[in-house]
Design brief:
The protein contains eleven helices and 26 strands. Helix 6 packs across helix 7. The longest helix is centred in the middle third of the chain and has 18 residues. The relative contact order is 0.10. The protein is of the alpha+beta class and 438 residues long. The structure holds adenosine-5'-triphosphate and magnesium ion.
């Protein structure tokens, strides 16, 4: 009998810690909290245990189903928010969010993505109750929260400019949302401190509790803002460009941290960003918006590999997709006068052709020729910078492995194109046309 079994933990439960730490076990969620403290809980009986040999390196908190039920799917149903248009000659109203329908699965992290002004923050404001929709509904699980005041929604928010209270310490900042709880939700001082400490531990700022925000780095301030949003154990977590003020390295580190925290807490989370790479790297699913309207939703890779239109294709990917004027004629795809590949039976028409930077293959007798402008070394890869008269942009970027040798003194380079990396778009609607032969 192991030490855990002696303490009354079931064999299955112990197995699940050892073998499947991420999995739920009969109503209990296992979540790793802190590598330093060997503390285990089962159900609501908090039992402190020594660390048995089998699970030496892993320590978990086990919450019961009650906590699990606090997270939930979120449904946005035909959500619309209109603002009065203030310019004299412009439209009377601007739809910042326009007929937005989407279901966020329970416990997932969704990346809400789009250019500046497309309605991302407005969507979050509607979700947290700061603004009322012009029409449409919001559900948290089965509950219609459309008319529920913000403070009753159980939402944690990190706003675009995550202002901390400068005169309060880190501890006081994190405690702030708990001190304002009323009625049955009111907590004792000890309970508040326990929750604040747990949130601080989660974002690894527990040793900074007595400092003021001015004594913290940008990344640390960011984590305080996240701890403040987490401390009430929200049903839904909303993060509006939470990494915008950080340098590139800290950005990377903090986004990994947000992902870790989200996985551990399993709180349904919406992460807003205009940085496509950020959204692609941490989201279970992404929602791409343009002028208040959803363009496409799906797993990041699916959306990248099969964009529905030119806007989505251009928005995802660094360096961005290369776009050319092209045409389909006699079941062949042309860029300029060059035949790129065969197409299935489609009517002759003018089109836009998009080629991802990684879709070019250097080839002496490739059918696509470009004027060579230079070669940029990027370490593992090289970027071949070139031009083509049919290109919509002045330069084309082809990313190829650094093992390829490109003679930069040559005037012309030739490529063949990888079929899966070439997209064709309708000239007027800009929607993608499936053109490859089966
Ligand atoms: N209170 C308001 N009154 C009038 N127009 C507003 C208001 N709030 C937002 N808008 C307009 O609604 C549109 C969407 O704004 P929103 O702040 O949601 O964009 P965003 O996607 O968050 O942009 P960013 O990436 O720059 O933060 C914009 O055109 C904006 O000017
Ligand atoms: Mg915004």
């Amino acid at each position: 009998m192991t030490e855990l079994e002696k303490k009354g933990f079931s064999h299955n439960f112990i197995q699940s810690i050892v073998l499947y730490p991420e999995k739920m076990d009969e109503g209990r969620i296992l979540k790793q909290i802190d590598f330093r403290f060997p503390v285990y809980y089962e159900g609501m009986k908090a039992m402190k245990l020594g660390c048995p040999t089998k699970v030496k390196s892993r320590r978990y908190t086990v919450c019961d189903r009650k906590n699990k039920e606090k997270t939930m799917k979120v449904i946005l149903q035909n959500l619309t928010k209109k603002f009065p248009g203030r310019s004299k000659n412009g439209p009377k109203e601007i739809a910042a969010v326009d007929d937005f329908s989407f279901e966020i699965p329970d416990g997932k992290l969704i990346g809400l993505l789009g250019p500046s002004g497309c309605g991302k923050s407005t969507t979050l404001n509607l979700l947290c109750g700061l603004q009322k929709p012009t029409s449409g509904k919001i559900f948290f699980g089965e509950e219609d929260v459309t008319d529920l005041p913000a403070e009753k929604r159980g939402v944690g928010v990190v706003f675009q400019n995550y202002a901390l209270y400068p005169h309060l310490t880190v501890k006081q900042n994190i405690l702030f949302p708990l001190e304002n709880l009323k009625g049955a939700q009111k907590l004792s001082k000890a309970e508040m401190m326990e929750k604040a400490n747990e949130a601080a531990r989660l974002v690894q700022i527990d040793d900074l509790m007595e400092r003021k925000p001015s004594e913290l780095s940008g990344g640390q301030q960011q984590r305080v803002a996240i701890a403040r949003a987490l401390v009430k154990r929200p049903r839904v977590l909303l993060l509006d460009e939470p990494l915008s003020n950080l340098d590139a390295r800290l950005r990377l580190q903090t986004r990994e941290e947000i992902r870790r925290i989200q996985r551990e807490t399993k709180i349904t989370t919406i992460f807003v960003t205009h940085d496509q790479e950020e959204a692609m790297s941490i989201s279970d699913e992404i929602v791409v918006m343009k002028q208040g309207v959803i363009q496409q939703t799906g797993r990041p890779q699916e959306v990248y590999d099969a964009p529905v239109n030119l806007f989505v294709a251009k928005f995802l990917g660094t360096p961005p997709i290369n776009v050319f004027q092209g045409r389909i004629k006699g079941q062949k795809l042309y860029i300029g006068e060059e035949v790129i590949m065969e197409t299935k039976d489609l009517p002759d028409q003018e089109v836009f052709v998009g080629v991802r930077p990684e879709g070019f293959v250097l080839s002496k007798d490739g059918s696509f020729s470009c004027e060579l402008k230079g070669v940029e070394v990027m370490g593992r890869d090289i970027s071949v910078v070139c031009a083509n008269r049919a290109s919509v942009n002045p330069t084309i970027r082809a990313i190829i492995s650094a093992e390829n040798k490109v003679d930069a003194s040559r005037a012309l380079v030739r490529f063949t194109l990888k079929p899966g990396k070439v997209f064709v778009f309708h000239k007027e609607t800009q929607e993608r046309i499936c053109f490859l032969k089966d």
